[in-house]
Every structure is written in structure tokens, then in C-alpha cells.
Amino acid sequence: MQAAIDNTKKFSGRAAVYREARSGYAAGLFEFLAQQWRIGQGSLVADIGSGTGILTAALLDLGATVYAVEPNRDMRLLAEQDLGARERFVSVDGTAEESGLPAGKFDLVCAASAFHWFDPILFKKECQRILKPDGRVALIWNESQLSADVNRAREEVYKKYCPNFVGFSGGHKNHPEIKEAFFDGKMRELRFANPVIYDKKRFVGRLLSSSYSLTEEDPNFEAYLRELEAIFDRIAVDGQIVMPQETVLYCR
User: Fold this and answer.
1) 210 falls in which pLDDT band (50, 70, 90)?
2) Domains of the chain, with CATH numbers?
3) pLDDT of residue 1
4) Helix (H, G, I), strand (E, B) or coil at 124
5) Adjacent-strand bridge partners of 138
6) Where would a tag sit more exposed on the chain, N or C end, judged by fewer CB atoms within 10 A?
7) Helix-strand-coil percent breakdown of the chain, rounded to 5?
8) Helix, strand, or coil here: 11?
């Protein structure tokens, strides 16, 4: 029998570039959470697969107490370094399937750019265990607009060099039935504009931060890096490039 893939190691060695290059999520998302779902002071939120704390920090800004659950040590330690001094931040070494969080306590469970790494059936059971009876789940991604020249160009490079590339955002859009089943066929999809402006260093860093990206140890890395840099050089205007994307919230 083939051993199960350990997705908790996907970003080992990438945590620093991930923190530096990844964008935050759209302001409109947090306005929605605050105004429509009343997430704020007094709310208890579980950020599952919290990584370096990009979503966690914004949830703390809303006034919530956030339990940031992250199994990858490199990512978790950076989040603790950046957020450890903030009130209402709790770092947890756990997984989506076994979070270690107390039962029936949470108003909201979030998974930002992470659900595609989870076992959806076991994660659903864990959400049901830790949520209050009226608690909610938010699955969140920053999704690239595939019609944009920059995204078509980088997709070609990924397909050429990266054997583990299955599509942007972990390829979750290739299997909508998984999210539909997670929400018992009652899924809503809300979109918030979230374009990002990159200089060359951050642009290349963003591409290298992907789990499927080649690393320096790969014999094709230099050629791969040159092609990524060439995308920027071809498309950038005045030393900057705009990456069209939307923050997308999937929920009930």
C-alpha cells in the first residue's frame, strides 16, 4: 500500500518567502465577517492551516480571539514571532483533522488557502466538534483571474517545469463537488476584489512560495527562475506588475 502523502510538510523551507511575498485578503471579506456574521470583540475563531498568520492577523484586528492551528513548524514559528505579543492570539500545533481545540466553543472556523490540503470528511467532523451550534465555516482563497496575461504566462511556466502543479489555489476549482459536499449542497460563493501590485523581487518570491514550485536544489531551477523573471520584465510597467485576483469566500 502506498503511504499517505504528508501535506503538513509542503511548505517546509518556504515559510520566509511565503510571509514576505503572499498578499493579504480583501478588505471586503473582513467587512462582511464583521457586519454580516458579527465577528469581532468576544468572538472565538479557529484559523485552521493558519500558516504564517496572514489571515490570523486580520482576524485579530477585528477584535476576535484567534486560535491559529498550524502543523508546519517553520510556518508556525514565524507566526508566533510576528503575532506572539498580541493579545487574543493562541498558537496551536495541530492539524485540520485533529486540531486539539476544545469542543463546542468556536463562533467561526476559517481555512484560508488551506482547505485543499485537508481530508475534507475528517475536517468537516472536526468543525462540527469544535463549533458552537450556530457557528460558521469559511473557506477562503485568493484566486487568480486566469484570463490575465500574467497568470496565463506563469501557468505555462509552471506546466513546463513543475510536475506537482495541478492548478492555481491547489487546484480546488477543478473539484467543486468537494466543497459542495462539505456544505451539504448549500454552498454560497462570495467574491471581493483584491488586486496586488508587485515589484520584481516580491513577484518572483510570490511564485517561488507555491508548494509546487521548484527549489534551488532542482537542476532546472536556474532556467525556471529566468523564465519567471522574464514574465515580469515583459509585462511590468514602471517596475511594477498588477496581479489581478479576487478573495473568494465559500460558505453556507
Assistant:
1) confident
2) 7-144+168-195+245-251 (3.40.50.150)
3) 29
4) helix
5) 110
6) N
7) 40, 20, 35
8) coil
